[in-house]
Predict the 3D structure of the following.
Amino acid sequence: MRIKPFEYHAASDLREAVQMLSEEGADARALAGGTDLVLAMKHKAVLPKKVVSLHRITEMAAINTEGDEIKIGALATHSELAAHLELQKVVPILCQAVSLIGSWQIRNSATIGGNLAHASPAADSAAPLLALDATLVTTSPSGDENIPLASFFSGPGATILHPGQIIKEIIILRPQGRSSGRYLKLMRKRAVDLSQAGVAFQAELDPAGEKLAKVAIGLGGMAPTPIRAPEAEGMLEGLSCAEALKKIPSVARAVVAATSPIDDIRASAAYRKLVAEAFFKQAAQEVLTSLTAG
Amino acid sequence: MPKIQIVGRSYPQIDGMEKATGRTRFASDIKLAGMLHARVLRSPYPHARILNIDTSRAKALPGVKAVVTYADTPGIKFGPRSDDWTIFADDKVRFCGDEVAAVAAVDEDTAEEALELIRVEYEELPFVESPLEALKPGAPLVHEDHPGNVAAEFKVEAGDVDRALANSHVVCEESFYTNQTYQAYLEPMGAVADVDLAGRITLYAGNQIPSMIRVPYAKALGLTLDQVRVVLPDYGGGFGAKMETNTHLVAMLLAQKTGRPVRHFNTRHDDFIAGNPRVPMYIDIKLGADKEGVITGKEVKVIGDAGARIVYSQIIVATACYRVDSLYRFKNVRAKGITAYTNTVPTSCFRGFGNTQATFVLESAMDILAHKLGMDPAEMRVKNSIGPDSVSVHGWKINSCGLKECVEEATKMSGWAEKKAKKRPLKGIGLSCCNHVSGNRAFAREFDGGAGIVRIGRDGRISVYHGESDMGQGQKTVYAQIAAETLGVPLDWVSVMQVDTDISPWGFGSFATRGTLMGGNGVLAASKDAFIKLAQVAADMMESNVDDVVCEGGRFYVKGSPDKSLDFKEVALNATDSNHGSPVMGTGFYDPPTVLPDPKTKQGNISPAYPFGCQIAEVEVDPTTGKVTVTNFVAAHDVGRAINPMALEGQIQGGVAQGLGWTLMENMVTNKGKVANANFLDYLIPTALDMPPVEPKLIEPYEPNGPYGAKGIGEPAINPTMSAITNAIYDATGVRITELPVSPEKLLAEMEKLKGSHEG
């Protein structure tokens, strides 16, 4: 469990960071909170020649909730997000999801950008951010590029980022109508566990507050990447909450139909599906009821 | 005599502040000048012939000081209770993790790099990973000299079981399985070994049996016992696992080869795959009762998994066969135990020593019978409870016994009667009792007991020497309390010294819940001896008779005249000066009234005292996930007279946490001969958030054989936890758990089945 020798740089700004990373190509790794990377290096799962730490680029940790675009710096830690009062008001689903990651110590160190870049199919931040239609602002020596989170993941542990390209910030559009969201996570113990199934349900009412203008379902640990369940979402959009509540059982079946989980030591595929269905029902019930209550 | 002042009072552990502030130097913190670092190359196969080992490239790596394999050992077969160990694999490897070679180098990085340069040619062999498979005809043999893979057999019988069962009103016949679990101590196993020019080895190793461990180690290295000295640093827990391990011998062998101190600690991964995890057991039980709920007879068959070599598994299986028979007034019992070799990690002691497994089974069966009879499970326990001053079916002499009081207190504290009467959906309450030992005569064979040395220096400082092992459970504090109480001085005048086998008495160590009773009685005897010697000096100084002298709060006085007193330190100074520097030395021992069980009948008396307990769990089951939440827990334990109530309560809470983990999540999974979850990501232990409030209750009957009336708590704290929880799950869901752990997925499937059968 010893880490192989490597070259370490603490980049002083973003430009320097991406420059260094692109010079080494695939042999370089960006270091944020380190909770995934250092572990992978100990296990020799990755053997970078060069590690470029981003910790000195403090502006990358900023959280800006002022405009219609909520901007979350990639280096914001899970603890910072979970405790952010404005985020708790506007996108509570995100705060709730990241507060379930790892332990206090891990949340104090691990970052939202790192969680996404690590691209675990079960990443707790991914399902709610997918449900919030998040966009990633990435940067590389050739400039900034916006990537919708929905097209970011390319497989378990894989993304479409190329060497030298890193996540700079995450943009979420402020919900226009009244909205509510809920994330439920299947764990084998009450803390310090990976999600065996994560269900994010986010819904937004039209300006009149009558119909569901937007419904989004994000799923973690249920497919090779975090996914949405667009068919299930379509079954609810345009309905009133009362109508939607009645449709929950059939929508839940459509949610499960969108998944393709694996059997492993942590849970069987059948159990993941069973729980995802139950979690969806519970999350939808809670969210739609709260929107009804006004 | 002054009244008891220090014994019976709660004290934080005397080394607690040092530990809490990070000042304690644990075993793995030890650094000696010139020390080398070792790593072990372990087998990647569960069973394979070794065709060739090429260490030349590893030896050539700069910084590497030695590379060793079986060829570098004396080739002596040895073992704690068997002769099936070698320091490295000889002609074949027998489990994934078996030691094949080791490297000593200037640092750990170099040692690890060198491992990658060792080339081993293997010829893979068919393997067995389940004891049931291993016992089938034609199964691959783990050890060629053990046909049928039978490592050991054990039989015990008393009364007429067949008749008793045939004449029973109800019989429970059920098969259970208890899985493999890992002790998950904070500090992995390891040691630093140092060798002097005469070839004498000093082993600095956190282990539970510092004296006994020398015997097989000396044999393995072809040394005499006096050539192996063990020093016991503070260490990070053991729970039964930290006894003999090749991990230590690797350091010793490399120290011999290099002439330099060698440090070898398992990585956590290595500790998982080659530690000493719990013995998995298949246990079939038949338990009968009459109409009134009085137990008629019991028969059990146990098949235990030794893994690839015997550590203590055969004694653990034997324990599972009959120790629990002293919980109730059994008259007719029969048990057969088979310990089977498999190509898996060798298994050994884990808090409870087979009695945990047996208690889970018996207390589940008791619950089944109580339900069959429509009887309150608590009432059935009380009805059958063994009492004080009685003799059990195997001849074990029970002196103090607070079992009935434990049941009474636990049911009262938990609101048992009201909760049983008012059934709430998916909520349940379950009860389980337990017994245990405080010492195990069958384990300590040559003699049993404990000894102590108490030194009173010229400055009045008191040093207590013992031969047991404090792995964090609080033994040092208990010994300090006993010495301070007996000498009549404040607690902080007493130091409990590090165990060093060149200085300390021979102690059997910390297992079998024996530390407080055996070691405590040894310290008590030595303290009394020291007191008499010092009191004689005080008597001379006060011109009175030694029998009339007492000491209280560090002042000697003649009975009846506490106002004319002498400072203890002044007496100590006087004593040493008049003896030209020789300190006051008290020595003493405890010879317990135990009887080694007869090899045939197993009649004997293996412990001088027997602790008891009753635990009650409340659970809630989530019908969508099958997840069990333990919502409340009470644990009443007969500990004899409590010496340090705070430490006892901590031990009880820790035992319940460990038992809760075992019941609900802990499971070593072996897949194709490999441990599939050799890490804390997938080997789950409960977090603080998973724990309910655990309310301990101490029941304190005076135990005539205990120091100040005390018995032990270490193992009874976990024994009843599993069945308390699974009996509560039955109460909540109607699902009878016969296999540990209770995975939510399995429970949910069983609940669905029940629903189907009710609807159908």
Summary: The longest strand of chain B covers residues 295-307. DSSP finds 19 helices and 30 strands in chain B. The interface with chain A takes residues 108-109, 112, 267-269, 624-625, 665, 669, 671, 676-677, 681-682, 684, 686-687, 689-690, 744-745, 748 of chain B (CB under 8 Å). The mean pLDDT of chain B is 97.
